[in-house]
Amino acid sequence: MTSLARIRDWLMAHPLAFDAALAVAVLACMVTASFVEPYGVHGPHFGRAPEAISVVLMVASAGALVFRRRAPLLVLILTVAATLVELTTGDQRAPVMMAVVIALFTVASMTDRPTTWRFALPIMAVMTAAAMLTSKLPWYAQENLGVVAWSGLAAAAGDALRSRRAFIDAIRERAERAERTREQEALRRVAEERLRIARDLHDVVAHHIALVNVQAGVASHVMDKRPDQAKEALAHVREASRSALNELRATVGLLRQSGDPEAPTEPAPGLARLDDLLDTFRAAGLPVELVHNDNGEQLQAAVDLAAYRIIQEALTNVQKHAGMGAKAEVSVLRVSRNLEITVLDNGGTGRGADTGAGASVDEDDKPSPTPEGGHGLIGMRERVSALGGTCTTGPRYGGGFRVHAILPLSTGAQTQARSRTCG
Question: DSSP character for 398?
Fold first, then answer.
């Protein structure tokens, strides 16, 4: 079997050699059949010899099949001509029509349907009429009617093969196009999310740089007359610059690339505006309860912004995908040196243990069965990973969805090595 497989693969890789082998096989079949006497006393038997013209026609028609892929219509015409000559000359017919069957199959498989039947129907009619008019048997004999059957079978088989190839090619092309589109869409979404994070980072860094500029100006102004106040101003400069550098290190992988639009300069939102955010969802019909213990303590700008965006995205998903009667709970708790954010919903009548299990949602309202989640969750993962934290999402037991993020309150350089994903 291994040797046969190698031979088959070689023939498929060399179509001219395959066609030559096919022509030899067809010629062997025609020559063998030409020695058969179909109407013997005791039935068909080997008892006759083909005429010279029949041998020439069989060799010519079989030789034409070698070029069936290069000139399928010309080969078809030559084999039909050889068959008509065989039908109208000589007393003993040789099966030259075998070459016509192969040629007609090739035309049907390599051209379109109209071309196939535009050639097949006249050929079937002409050869059938010639067989009926020149045969010594009655016109309705099986030998004459077999011309129609074999010709029609060859054309139908070739057309079916062509249709199957076209169908497979169309499926493959659609799959490749869908794969390219999906990859491009994912890259575009990630790029947009990173650009948005980079814009937020612009606000964070701008705040620290502005503070450094003001304090440096104060230190320069009072350096000679009030050195104590100058030292205090320089201490503020050092602290602000250290914070800016730490936040830059934590988000260095998310910086915008060249050619991105200019970043806006409006202040970035934070947990100080959380009540206003929740009021917008309540006004839209989503009851939201809030639990927090921040005690009004100031957070680093990057942590504050990330916490706000995570809550915003989670509640947006609840509003989009949960059903009627959905409720949400938001908790913002300081635990040790971390800020833990939890957003829960009961699923309402639209998303629960049955409909939402194992699925996450994105910003296009399309469920995503992949473990990595939708595009909205990609934004959460980018933000949390940038700060060295962790984020988990998934369906709740009994219905609903849960988003849980842990953000370190310190985004120093030691967190740069931690890159944890949103599961």
Answer: T
